[in-house]
Design goal:
heterodimer; A: 306 residues; alpha/beta; Rossmann fold; 2 domains; B: 347 residues; mainly alpha; ABC transporter involved in vitamin B12 uptake, BtuC; 0% strand
């Protein structure tokens, strides 16, 4: 009788220990991009994603069905438009988010306040901050999200794919000292460009180009004269075209005094897909390919307007 | 005994006008030669000389910058500065209010609202690309003025300085929120909020300069023609009526003219504050309150001030360009406090 009891007891103990170690094995700890440690009992299955780029990462690693809420500007891939919208940024509505019953909220630190984060965490929702400003940061974000969702392998595959594209482009481009001018906002809205520390600048470097405004940091409002004086070899504009009036490229070519620029005379102006080139997500590799094709005059298929 | 010499000297002598014109031309040339990109003086002269001779400027970077970017900009800034300052002086004289100006009276923001609505709704006049926007801006400018004056009158029949300015300022804030709201919904058709509230001359062309010139000549001419009547308003509307001034008619004409001029300026460059407020005071300190001298003096001083402000905005943080409203507000606010302090002290 006592032997049976002991073996029963040992069996129960064994099951218990296996179960607890299994539970520990599936517990997830990530360090987010604000150096905060977040632990979940198991990979997340209900997630509200505020940033368009994080949503693209989630879908790239195969977690689209875990998204229960999306920020106002999240729009890619198009299938995600069916997910309920929540307000993001300064107008973040904590009640709205709680109503969707998520386990995790993925957000940026821009315009979010400490109070909003605290409110969410007090109600049992984990907040993970994602804020990449360069390609290395994007890789970190992908790994972090991969770990959070229990899809580390998929995450590594996405990163490897991106890096392979960048490496291939770098290997086929040599820096011949040609310059590129990124127009983030056109003349009629106040001329803005992307300087050092932006994704556009990084992609330019990968393609072997020098940013005409490398002396500026981040995004800056510049004088028209400066563009004329720096006479860039290539012009890339990310102005969106809505079908009315001249296209952004036509508009640039028709500007008074711009007709003498090298880029205008040679027709070397690209209207890049603006979301791919500015979001810290997997589509940066598409933007790199678009830029590379443009510089080397490779006619790719028409990129449909997003 | 009338001293006929004194009566004759009300207007500026031709010599004074010459002096003022030379000062203005000097400032304009300075602004053409100096800019974000350093261009040597000889290159500048060559570019302008080539243009006058009819040699095409193509092929030369400096030529393009001087002729297609700087020159139209300098012209627009000069004309807009003169116009805004003249309007400020006229309003201050008409309403006997030293704080009256396009921005404090809500006229500029009303014009901006009109322009934004026209842009969002896509108003155009046939054959005249800016037409719809400008006409709507002028109409809204005039509407705002009437609205504010009526509101002020119903609150305070004496139309004291404080009530008008209070209502004007609150109205401006209210309109700014509406503009912001419209821009949120129609952001691809309208210019940015910072353009409307802080102003910008970036990207102006010769057509806009021509329009400003015609407007200034016509409206400026009308306002200057009413110099004597504006002088009469200084002793009070009732007294002015007694000495034969058709108060209602003069008021209406001056207010319409001011709305038209401000409407055009705002559609081209957004609201630029403090020019119409401060420059007439400076002009008054230099030439006195007689509108026959004050109005022309405001024209020149406004143009010179705005030229220097635009020069600062383009060069101080080169290659970054500041909004011109930032410079005029900083300088104008400080200047205004100093003027206020001085006039208080004198009393």
């Amino acid at each position: 009788m006592s032997k049976k009891l002991v073996s029963l007891f040992l069996a129960v103990l064994m099951v218990f220990s296996i179960a607890s170690s299994l539970a520990e094995a599936s517990a997830v700890t990530v360090t987010d991009m604000h150096d905060r440690e977040i632990t979940l009992a198991e990979p997340a299955t209900r997630i509200v994603v505020m940033q368009p780029s994080d949503c693209e990462i989630l879908c790239a690693i195969g977690c689209e069905d875990t998204i229960v809420g999306r920020g106002q500007y999240v729009d890619y891939p198009t299938s995600v438009l069916e997910v309920p919208v929540v307000q993001s940024g300064a107008e973040t509505n904590v009640e709205e988010i709680l109503a969707l019953n998520p386990q995790v909220v993925l957000m940026n630190d821009m315009a979010q306040s400490e109070e909003q984060v605290k409110q969410l965490e007090e109600n049992g929702v984990k907040v993970v901050v994602s804020s990449a400003t360069d390609i290395e940061g994007v890789y970190y974000a992908i790994r972090m999200i991969g770990k959070l969702m229990g899809k580390e392998e998929n995450a590594e595959a996405v990163i490897a794919d991106m890096q392979a594209t960048f490496d291939e482009i770098k290997a086929n481009s040599k820096n011949e000292g040609k310059t590129v001018y990124f127009e983030v906002s056109p003349l009629q809205w106040g001329l803005w460009t992307a300087g050092k520390g932006t994704f556009m600048d990084e992609l330019a470097e990968i393609c072997g180009l020098t940013n005409a405004f490398a002396d500026l940091n981040d995004w800056a409002s510049i004088s028209e004269e400066q563009v004329l004086a720096r006479d860039p070899d290539f012009i890339v504009t990310i102005t969106m075209y809505y079908g009315e009036g001249p296209t952004p490229v036509e508009e640039i070519m028709s500007r008074e005094g711009w007709g003498d620029l090298k880029a205008v005379k040679n027709g070397d102006i690209l209207n890049a897909e603006s979301n791919a080139i500015s979001r810290p997500g997997p589509r940066l590799k598409d933007a790199a390919i678009e830029l590379y094709n443009f510089i080397n005059n490779i006619k790719a298929e028409e990129v449909p307007a997003a | 005994m009338h001293d006929s010499r004194q009566l004759k000297r009300e207007r500026f002598t031709p010599l004074t006008y010459l002096f003022l014109t030379v000062a203005l031309l000097f400032t304009m040339i300075l602004c053409i030669c100096v800019g974000s990109v350093s261009i040597s003086f000889s290159d500048t002269i060559t570019a302008v000389w080539n243009a006058i001779r009819g040699v095409p400027a193509s092929g030369s970077i400096t030529g393009n910058i001087i002729l297609n970017v700087r020159l139209p900009r300098v012209l627009c800034v000069t004309l807009a500065g003169a116009a805004l300052s003249l309007c400020g002086a006229a309003m201050q004289g008409l309403l006997r209010n030293p704080l009256a100006d396009g921005s404090t009276m809500g006229v500029s923001s009303g014009a901006a609202l009109g322009a934004v609505i026209a842009m969002a709704a896509g108003f155009t006049l046939p054959g005249f690309s800016y037409g719809g926007i400008m006409v709507t801006a002028m109409a809204f400018a005039f509407g705002s003025l009437i609205l504010i004056l009526s509101l002020a009158y119903s609150l305070d029949h004496s139309l004291s300085t404080n009530s008008i300015i209070l209502i004007g300022v609150i109205f401006t804030m209210f309109i700014s929120s509406i503009i912001s709201l419209i821009i949120t919904f129609a952001s691809d058709h309208t210019r940015s909020l910072s353009f409307w509230t802080l102003g910008s001359f970036s990207g102006v062309n010769y057509d806009q300069a021509k329009l400003l010139f015609i407007a200034l000549v016509i409206c400026g001419g009308i306002l200057i023609r009413f110099s004597s009547e504006l002088n009469a308003f200084a002793i009070g509307e009732d007294n002015a009526r007694h000495i034969g001034v058709n108060v209602k008619q003069v008021k209406l004409i001056v207010l319409i003219t001011v709305s038209v001029l401000i409407g055009i300026c705002v559609s081209i460059s957004g609201t630029i504050s403090f020019v119409g407020l401060v420059m007439p005071h400076i002009a008054r300190m230099l030439v006195g309150p007689n509108h026959k001298r004050l109005l022309p003096a405001s024209l020149f001083s406004g143009a010179i001030f705005l030229l220097l402000a635009d020069l600062t905005a383009r060069t101080i943080l080169s290659p970054i360009e500041l909004s011109i409203g930032v410079v005029t507000s900083l300088v104008g606010a400080v200047a205004f406090v100093i003027i206020f302090y001085r006039t208080r002290k004198r009393r």
